[in-house]
Design brief:
single chain
Length: about 250
C-alpha cells in the first residue's frame, strides 16, 4: 500500500509541474493535462484488474480483443464523420487492418499464440489501426478540399469518383505512414520503443526483446497501410465534391 501511495504522490508531482509550466508559458491548456492523466489512471487501473482475470481464464481474451476493436472503431468513426460514409469507412478500416495483421503475425508464428502475447500485440496493432484511420481520413478530406477543382475536372471528363480521388487517397495514405516509418528507421538509435523496454522489464533477453519489437514495428506498418488504403478507397467513392472550408 505504501508503494502505491508513494507512486501516486510522485505522479501527482509530475502532473503539477506540467500544469505549472503550462501556466507560466501561457500555453492555454488549463487543467487538461491533469484530467488526461487522471483518466489514464482510471482506465489503466481498470485494464490491469481486467487483465488479471483474463490471464487466469484464457478464453476471455477473445472478449477483450473484441472490446478493443469496438472501442477503436467507435473512436475512429467519431473522428471521420465529416467524410462521405466516414463512419463505415473508419470501422471497416480499423477492423480489416487490425484483424489481417494479427492473423498474419500468428499464422507466420512470429509470436507464440499465447494470451499475454495476443493481448500485447493486439493492443498495439489495434491502437495503431485506429490512428491510421483517423490520419488517413483527415488527410484525405484535407486533400479533397484543397484539390477540389482537380476533382471537378476529372469528373467533368467522365472519370469515376474513385478515379477522381485516386491520387488524393494515395497521398493521404503516404502522409499518414511517414511519421511512423521515420520513427521505425530511428529505432534503436534515437528511441527505445515501449515493446522492447517492456519485454526487457519482463525478464526477456535483449535479443528476444528486439525480435518482439521488430514484429511489432512490422505489424504497425502493415496495419496502418491496410487501414489507410481501405479508408481512402471507400471515401474516394463519394459522388460529391468536398466543400471548401472558409478560413473565417
Amino acid at each position: 500500500m505504501q508503494h502505491y501511495v508513494g507512486f501516486g504522490a510522485g505522479l501527482l508531482a509530475m502532473t503539477a509541474l506540467t500544469l505549472a509550466l503550462g501556466r507560466w508559458a501561457r500555453i492555454g491548456m488549463g487543467l487538461f493535462p491533469f484530467w488526461a492523466i487522471l483518466r489514464a489512471v482510471v482506465q489503466l487501473s481498470a485494464v490491469a484488474l481486467l487483465l488479471r482475470g483474463i490471464l487466469a481464464v484464457p478464453w476471455t481474451v477473445v472478449a477483450f480483443v473484441v472490446l478493443m476493436l469496438s472501442t477503436a472503431s467507435w473512436t475512429a468513426m467519431g473522428r471521420l464523420k465529416e467524410l462521405w460514409h466516414g463512419r463505415r469507412a473508419a470501422a471497416l478500416g480499423v477492423l480489416s487492418g487490425a484483424l489481417v495483421t494479427l492473423v498474419v503475425i500468428f499464422a507466420l508464428q512470429l509470436v507464440d499464440l499465447e494470451v499475454r502475447y495476443l493481448v500485447a500485440v493486439g493492443g498495439i496493432v489495434i491502437g495503431n489501426s485506429m490512428s491510421a484511420a483517423t490520419l488517413a481520413g483527415r488527410n484525405f478530406l484535407r486533400g479533397a478540399r484543397a484539390r477540389k477543382d482537380e476533382v471537378e475536372a476529372w469528373l467533368s471528363l467522365g472519370a469515376t469518383p474513385s478515379r477522381a480521388h485516386e491520387e488524393i487517397g494515395r497521398e493521404a495514405v503516404r502522409e499518414s505512414l511517414l511519421p511512423t516509418l521515420d520513427q521505425t528507421k530511428s529505432t534503436g538509435l534515437v528511441t527505445l520503443p515501449g515493446a522492447f523496454v517492456g519485454a526487457l522489464f519482463g525478464g526477456a533477453s535483449p535479443a528476444t526483446a528486439a525480435q518482439f519489437q521488430l514484429v511489432v514495428l512490422a505489424g504497425i506498418a502493415l496495419t496502418m497501410t491496410i487501414t489507410g488504403i481501405v479508408v481512402t478507397r471507400l471515401a474516394g467513392r463519394t459522388p460529391y465534391v468536398a466543400a471548401t472550408v472558409n478560413a473565417a
